Request: fold
Amino acid sequence: MSDIFPKWTNRLPLKIAIGALVVAGTLTAGITYYLTPAYGRVGYQPIQPVPFSHEIHAGQLGIDCRYCHDAVEKSWFSNIPSATTCLNCHNQVLKDDSRLELIRDSAKTGKPVPWVQIHKVPDYVYFNHAVHVNRGVSCVECHGKVNHMDEVRQEKSFTMSFCLDCHRDPAQHIRHPKDVYNLDLEISPEEQKKMGTKFVHDWNVQSLQNCSACHR
Reply:
């Protein structure tokens, strides 16, 4: 009596089991990577070529973010200060310190200091710093309290859901322009809602969620 099913079907359960394991492994790896802080680079804290402390400069000394990042209110990017900006102070303060040798060399030669970029968004994402800070979005919303960081690290996950949380409800993330660079400002939820709702109305802030707002 001939077999009802072809011989190759004898191996079908094994093939199905192997396929299921491959699919499950792929899904697990994908979820582990894309839905955890590793994907968003949270905690990324590279060693910089010059040991610059935001905790000392922005925290203890109270230097305004815009002194160094002076293009943030007029440009899509927040610039890294030139060596000459550093030497405005350090030509007197710690002027011979060996830790600042790269800064002094950069000022003499014009060769940029090879800072390691920490905060990045994918190439297909358009983000304009000036638009955000000029409409009351504080640096702390995306970068955390860098004034309390000795070595700057990435505090927030720059995923699409992170951006959409703000775009869906901008009133919860907008403050008075005079407080944009006050990274230690504490605002109660009630006060934030009242203030944010007013600024959203007065400035005609739109809750943009269409693809072209960020993907151009």
Notes: Residues 7-35 form one domain. The chain has a mean pLDDT of 89.
